[in-house]
Amino acid sequence: MILVTGGAGFIGANFVLDWLALHDEPIVNLDVLTYAGNLENLASVWNDPRHLFVKGSIADYDLVAGLLRSHRPRAVLNFAAESHVDRSIHGPEEFIQTNVVGTFRLLEAIRGFLALQDETFRESFRFLHVSTDEVYGSLAPAEAAFSEDRKYEPNSPYSASKAASDHLVRAYHHTYGLPVLTTNCSNNYGPYHFPEKLIPLVIHNALSGKQIPIYGDGMQVRDWLFVKDHCSAIRRVLESGKVGETYNVGGRNELTNLSVVNTLCEILDELRPLPDRASYKSQITLVRDRPGHDRRYAIDAAKIERELNWRPRETFDTGIRKTVEWYLANEAWTENVTSGSYRQWIDRQYQ
Ligand code: NAD
Ligand code: DAU
């Protein structure tokens, strides 16, 4: 049994679905269902006896302590977070509450639980904290990609809150001996990505005939990784990562935002041509830049490749095509998210 937090969100749901497709081991899935939590993502495993969904917060010490006591998971994987940089700029409070206080309470509950277990259980237990490359700050154009020993220089309230959570995880290992692992991954894309983030937003706006907003000059660089490759990296780290270590995860796919958006428009032009054969590119609009916008992220994934023999399966070309195909085949999913009806998924499902 493993306990996953945030498993109704984008990466957490992909992780849960892949895990249950690959393993017999059951999952307890703890998610408070913020706007980003969508039970429709879990529809295919909703009646699977190996999947137990619990609605609740990582910041609820008593709830987490009770789940640990009753299910005795061999690992806790923490995906739960507020994850959108723009939202953190408009309202940082939730980011501190969830990412910092929530992670702290989760660590405390695990510390209390492990104190009551025997040494064999404690030694095999793992807490895996899912974090981001944004904690390292922004790279200059010719600078080397982020390695694990890069100093933390977070620039947004989101990345600062993730950095704080990483530091707490580290401290609980050094002070209390908690068996922790941390992953710092670059930008993910793929199925079930909430359409407030660049790639699903571009697909949705293009298909809806709306403007495709590009912040500033569009020359910011992100290092894109297909979400299922991130999930496979997390499984590798859980299985074989060295306790106390951090692992950077990335696909060596550095691209400017403009080139990502152009690629998306070209794939849509091919797969869903506009009636007048115009290009979706005509909807691209340069808009005001994000305050404090990080210019470039890039991950040096040499450590996880060398030590854990992990490699991504998708290139950007294969992964982005699969992603567009998924969104075209699942327009009802985006419609339910953008209309808000995804929040009544259980009622709709069982009415
Ligand atoms: P998401 O916003 O899509 O999902 C977050 C999930 O956490 C939601 O289901 C939400 O309901 C849940 N949640 C929020 N607060 C909670 C709480 N207090 N208790 C329990 N559940 C709570 O995020 P995502 O993109 O899937 O990211 C998952 C994790 O991966 C985050 O920690 C994020 O920082 C990290 N990460 C994301 C990316 C990316 O590109 N999306 C890249 C690297 C790392
Ligand atoms: O690097 C990992 C991080 O990637 C994760 O930790 C975050 O949770 C995740 O949201 C993502 O952060 P970004 O800020 O890089 O992702 P976002 O999709 O919001 O933006 C990607 C780039 O595109 C960024 O440079 C801002 C730009 N952008 C974004 C949106 C939503 C636009 O130009 N226009 C847009 O409308």
Structure characterization notes:
Helix content is 44%, strand content 15%. With 351 residues, the chain is α/β, with parallel strands linked by helices. It has a domain at 2-188 and 227-252 and 294-313: Rossmann fold. The protein has a seven-stranded parallel β-sheet, sandwiched between helices. α4 (93-115) runs parallel beside α6. It is globular, with a radius of gyration of 20 Å. The mean pLDDT is 97. The structure holds nicotinamide-adenine-dinucleotide and 2'deoxy-thymidine-5'-diphospho-alpha-D-glucose. Residues 5-6, 8-12, 30-34, 36-37, 57-59, 79-81, 83, 98, 102, 130, 132, 162, 185, 187-188, 194 line the site of nicotinamide-adenine-dinucleotide. It is an enzyme of class 4 (lyase). It catalyses: dTDP-alpha-D-glucose = dTDP-4-dehydro-6-deoxy-alpha-D-glucose + H2O. Pfam families: GDP_Man_Dehyd.
Helices and strands in order:
Elements: E1 2-5, H1 10-22, E2 27-31, E3 51-55, H2 61-71, E4 75-78, H3 85-90, H4 93-115, H5 119-124, E5 126-132, H6 157-176, E6 180-185, E7 188-189, H7 198-207, E8 212-215, E9 221-223, E10 225-226, H8 227-240, E11 246-249, E12 254-256, H9 257-271, E13 284-287, H10 302-308, H11 316-329, H12 331-339, H13 345-350
Parallel strand pairs: 1-2, 1-4, 2-3, 4-5, 5-6, 6-11, 7-10, 8-13
Antiparallel strand pairs: 9-12
The structure holds nicotinamide-adenine-dinucleotide and 2'deoxy-thymidine-5'-diphospho-alpha-D-glucose (DAU).
Nicotinamide-adenine-dinucleotide binds next to helix 1, strand 2, helix 4 and strand 5.
